[in-house]
Amino acid sequence: MSIDYVGVAELKVAVEKTGGLVVLAESFGHSVFKDSLLRVFQCGDNDLGLSSNGIFEVNFSKDIKIQGVLGPCASLEKKGPLCSDTTIGQGGTTAWKMCGLDKSTSLCLIFDIVKKENPDVIGQAANNQFYFQFLTYYQHSSGKMRLRATTLSRRWDLIAGFDQEAAAVVMGRLVSFKMETEAEFDPIRWLDKSLIHLCSRFGDYQKDSPSSFVLSPRLSIIPQFVFNLRRSQFVQVFNNSPDETAYFRMVMNRENVANSVVMIQPSLISYAFNSGAEPALLDVASIAADRILLLDSYFTVVVFHGSTIAQWRKAGYQNEPEHKVFAQLLQAPLDDADAIVKDRFPVPRLVICDQHGSQARFLLAKLNPSATYNSDAPPTPGGDVLFTDDVSFEIFLDHLQRLAVQ
């Protein structure tokens, strides 16, 4: 039990079924709450685009059936032949009520492929197209009712149309839902088995030869997403209160793919004298004494100064005219962090910290532990090590390859 437990976990069902907004902050005076509240009432190009009184309806070809929806909606109990016998989330219907929605509101639909009795029919259907039609009725903030119709046609070619980022987000929503509804569910085992099955089915390899294993470029990042999902706040509930876990899952369940991917696998940008701003690996090896890192994990934005940069800043070099370049280097990640904070809802927590400082944990917890306290190789000069027993991505990938080729 957390001392600041306020009951968000118990309110989760009500918030999601009514499409409400929720913000979890340390206090009403905290910038996360105050700035998020201002964003709700913001007008202009960057407003949330809040709408209400929505109905979401689906139509599709007879080759598939709908199992349910994961996201901020409530079932309208519109049953029919398109509904699957298996239900996930808000199932048993082809229409849902969305009392509140905004520009980034996203629903996750789970479908079931209709099994054919004749195997020849299956082969024939594999070459045919199937379609989806999504109808969204809603009341715009101007008061006018609008209808948005989206019709898609696809072929039964999984690899050609595979979206790795969307797949990672679906796995994140699905594993969160299973953790809340299935008492004996083991999320790590489920994620590992799903990934191994995917790799053994679609990977290119020689049997019992891990070194020959190769994934298609359309699938190559999935292992990395699953590795970070296993370590994320959606799966690892230890060290988080029930309120925090429910809050993280509620936000992911309504955000679009781009935002949700950042929650699962944060982005890292490096700033240095000789290179400027450039993407960096989400790895402890990216830490250097003469480098500034900007981590965006959606809920938290971290500006991390290497030890040498921190010493120079504390000495006040940035205030001297001959060190304008250093002052610009310090300011660049702060400007980028401010841009992220201003355009996001809920507004993330901004953490500015130094290497070896106590708040550096916000960055270290998200990095791949390629160098730990029990590693054989020493850390790079000016680098860092992680005090963790978690396996690194390299070891995770080695195990995956060995199991996939069996």
What does this structure look like?
This protein is of the alpha+beta class. It contains 12 helices and 14 strands. The protein has helices spanning 8-18, 31-40, 119-125, 164-181, 187-202, 222-230, 242-254, 257-264, 307-315, 324-342, 361-364, 393-404, and strands at residues 51-60, 64-70, 74-75, 95-101, 108-113, 129-139, 145-155, 204-206, 209-214, 267-272, 276-279, 292-296, 300-305, 349-354. A 5-stranded antiparallel β-sheet has the order 3-4-1-6-7. The chain has a 5-stranded mixed β-sheet with strand order 11-10-12-13-14. It has a two-stranded antiparallel ribbon with strand order 2-5. A hairpin with a 3-residue loop joins strand 12 and strand 13 (300-305). Helix 4 runs parallel beside helix 6 and helix 4 packs across helix 8. The chain is globular. InterPro entries: ADF-H/Gelsolin-like_dom_sf, Beta-sandwich_Sec23_24, Gelsolin-like_dom, Gelsolin-like_dom_sf, Sec23, Sec23/24_helical_dom, Sec23/24_helical_dom_sf, Sec23_C. One of its GO terms (molecular function) is metal ion binding. One of its GO terms (biological process) is intracellular protein transport. Residues 277-363 form the Gelsolin-like domain.
Summarize the structure.
Belongs to the SEC23/SEC24 family. SEC23 subfamily. This protein has a 5-stranded antiparallel beta sheet. Strands 11-10-12-13-14 form a 5-stranded mixed beta sheet. It has a two-stranded antiparallel sheet with strand order 2-5. With 406 residues, the protein is of the alpha+beta class.
